[in-house]
Each structure stands twice: as C-alpha cells, then as structure tokens.
Amino acid sequence: MNAQLQLLRRHSTPAKALAEPAPDDNQLRQILEIAMYAPDHGRLHPYRFMTIRGDSRHELSRVFGKAVKRRDPDVTDEYLKKQKDKPLRSPLIIVVVACLIESPKIPEIEQMLCAGAAAHNILLASNAMGFGSIWLTGDNVYDDFVESALGLADNEKIIGFIFLGTEEISIPSPPNPRIDEKISQWP
C-alpha cells in the first residue's frame, strides 16, 4: 500500500480491541524516533515519552482508581471499575508528556502543539507498522494526582495516553466530513 493511501485509512482503534502483540522494543524505539520528527519551533523537543506495559498497567490502574476517588468520593462502583479497567485494555500504553520550557521566543502553546504533533506521529508510525492505536485523554490526563504519581515535574503536562497493540477485529475507517466543508479561501 502506498503511503498516501495508508494515511487515508488511518483510524483510531477502540482500546478494548487491542491485544498482543504490541510493538517490541525495536519497533517501539523506531515509533518514538519517528515521533521526534514532529514540527518543533526552536528545536526545543518539548516532550518525552513514558511507556507502560505488563504489570505496570496494574499500577496505573490503581493510580486511576485513587484519582477518581479523590475527584469524587461518592463515585459509583461501576464508574470506578470502568476507570480502573482502562489501562488493562491494551498491551502497551505510551504517555506523551509535554515538557514546557520558559522561552522568550516559543510560547507554551507552540510547545504543547509540538508534543501533540509528536503524539500524532506515534499514531501514524504505529499504523504504518501494522499496529492499532488510539489517543485517549479525559479527566486522568488533567489530574494533579495522576501527574504526581507518574513523576511529572511542575513544568510537565500529560498530552494523552496512547494505547497500542494489534487489532483483534478489523475496524473500518469512519467517514470524514466532506473536504469542501473544511476549505475556504480568504478574503
């Protein structure tokens, strides 16, 4: 398949449809190297990647459970279980972290966008290697307790959790909006 056609077929795979095998260490390294080719004003490389697999997913599950209970002490058992199950849905999770640097020339928003572009490159690279992936956010991404449990510094923010693995079922690409609805000419 040519690269353009492959890009047109990229889609998010529901995390519950991801299974082993996940990328091995060599494939993961290649995926993360590709991520580092994200557009980067000032060449700050304002991001880092944290990988979670195996039993570490159970520790993340406990962190998510504690975070949910801190946000809502009256949380229902059903919702708590749903949140704690999230890290167990795929064999590999990459936490993309923005590492914000004080810069007189490159504002924080541009650094966040760079980290987001690196996250997107992870999706594209994993898809090109035949793996399924999905970029998830939600309350746990913006939770101070989760940031602390993951060891983030004061200048770091989670961009998202990228779940990776092999698609257990074939997922059709969702329909996109019509291109004409997204293009305009100014003035």
What does this structure look like?
The chain has a domain at 12-53 and 89-168: 3-Layer(aba) Sandwich (NADH Oxidase), CATH 3.40.109. It is built from six helices and five strands, in the order αβαβααβαβαβ. The protein has helices spanning 3-8, 25-35, 56-71, 77-85, 108-128, 144-149; strands at residues 18-19, 47-53, 92-99, 132-136, 156-167. Strands 1, 2, 3, 4 and 5 form a five-stranded antiparallel β-sheet that branches. The model has no long low-confidence stretch (mean pLDDT 93).
Jot down its keywords:
alpha+beta, NADH Oxidase, five-stranded antiparallel β-sheet
Reported by name, the CATH topology of the domain at 12-53 and 89-168 is NADH Oxidase
Oligomeric status of the shown chains? Answer: single chain
- Calculate the terminal CA-CA distance, rounded to whole Å: 39 Å
**DSSP helix fraction:** 25-40%
Runs with pLDDT <50, length 5+? Answer: none
User: What is the overall pLDDT average?
Assistant: 93
CATH architectural designation of the domain at 12-53 and 89-168: 3-Layer(aba) Sandwich
Work out the strand percent: 15-25%
- Which value, in Å, is the CA radius of gyration? 18 Å
| General form | globular
Q: Let me know the number of strands.
A: 5
What would CATH call the class of the domain at 12-53 and 89-168? Alpha Beta
* Classification by helices and strands: alpha+beta
What string, H for helix and E for strand, traces the elements in order? Answer: HEHEHHEHEHE
* CATH homologous superfamily (4th level) name of the domain at 12-53 and 89-168: NADH Oxidase
Total helix count? 6
